[in-house]
């Protein structure tokens, strides 16, 4: 997955790039990190989060990250950690 915050650089993880998420600004990023389940949908609806035509792949990638995190750090998933 690739991520860009504001006009900053595009950052990607180690795996294949299956989706691109553009986050309008740092406050939106912080909201997303604090309460991802609520703020992802809110951000998508209000336009502060944009994908490049790959919403399903973006959601699948996010679900895979959560499943992996659940195995590695169960408490982080319970707290709603996005990463």
Structure, explained:
The chain is an alpha+beta fold and 83 residues long. The chain has one domain (2-78). It is built from four helices and four strands; from the N terminus they run E-E-E-H-H-E-H-H. It has helices at residues 26-34, 36-46, 55-72, 74-78, and strands at residues 2-5, 11-12, 20-23, 49-51. The chain has a four-stranded mixed β-sheet with strand order 2-1-3-4. A hairpin with a 5-residue loop joins strand 1 (2-5) and strand 2. Helix 1 (26-34) packs antiparallel against helix 2 (36-46). The mean pLDDT is 82.
Secondary-structure class: alpha+beta
How many domain modules? 1
**Percent in strands:** 15-25%
Radius of gyration: 12 Å
Strand order of the largest sheet: 2-1-3-4
């Amino acid at each position: 997955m690739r991520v860009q915050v504001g006009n900053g650089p595009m950052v990607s993880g180690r795996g294949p790039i299956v989706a691109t998420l553009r986050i309008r600004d740092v406050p939106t990023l912080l909201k997303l990190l604090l309460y991802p389940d609520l703020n992802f949908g809110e951000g998508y609806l209000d336009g502060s989060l944009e994908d490049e035509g790959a919403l399903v792949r973006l959601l699948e990638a996010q679900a895979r990250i959560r499943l992996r995190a659940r195995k590695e750090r169960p408490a982080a998933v319970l707290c709603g950690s996005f990463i």
